[in-house]
Design brief:
CATH topology of the largest domain: Jelly Rolls
Strand content: 25-35%
Structural class: alpha+beta
Oligomer: single chain
Helix content: 40-55%
CATH architecture of the largest domain: Sandwich
Number of helices: 8
Number of strands: 12
Strand order of the largest sheet: 1-8-3-6
Distance between the termini: 35 Å
Number of domains: 2
CATH superfamily of the largest domain: Jelly Rolls
Order of helices and strands: HEEEEEEHEEHHHEEHHEEH
Radius of gyration: 19 Å
CATH class of the largest domain: Mainly Beta
Length: 212
Amino acid sequence: TALTAETQAAFLAAAASQHFEAGQVIYIEGEPANSVYILEHGWVKSTRMTHEGREQGLLFLRPVEIFGDIAVFTNKIYPGTVTALEKVDAWVVPAERMLALVKDHPDLALAVIRKLSERVLHYVGLVEDLSLRSVEARLAHTLLRYAVLQDGELVVPRRDWTTFDEMAVRLGTVRDVLSRAMKTLEAEGLLRVEKHAICLTDPKGLAERADR
């Protein structure tokens, strides 16, 4: 939803720009929710630790996404730990200023409601993935979601932080299981793993695997 010039000016007046280095923790699960963040540059991940001590990915966000919002609007603690995956620039708005902005600017309130609704749908899909889909199906679904067309072929570019460990966190599994799933799909001719990208050689077949 496009914001009016007045709302944009009010938001910028309330926000402060902050830089985070790759690997830097922005906030930790369980901390008081003091601020809302809007990504300007870079990627971040939101994770929780399971009872077994395994990191579970909740969100992988790119510009221009908001985070920390659910905790602020519900007056709760942050539900997950957010970490910069690469160099990140973000606009940071103190909780009380964000609440005042939403109250005074209906267009911003509508944009926030829409984003929160999208987040709910994301978590519904995450629960479905973890409970009903195999790792191979989750991998196929994720690759199709992030694929882009390059030189007539669908590919998923591999950023510096797109390691098997980070992909395993995103899919709710461990590196060894992910590696086996990737090799299985590659052996079936559905994809090809290269240094800087994962090429989807059979998108239709991959889509069928995603639905299993």
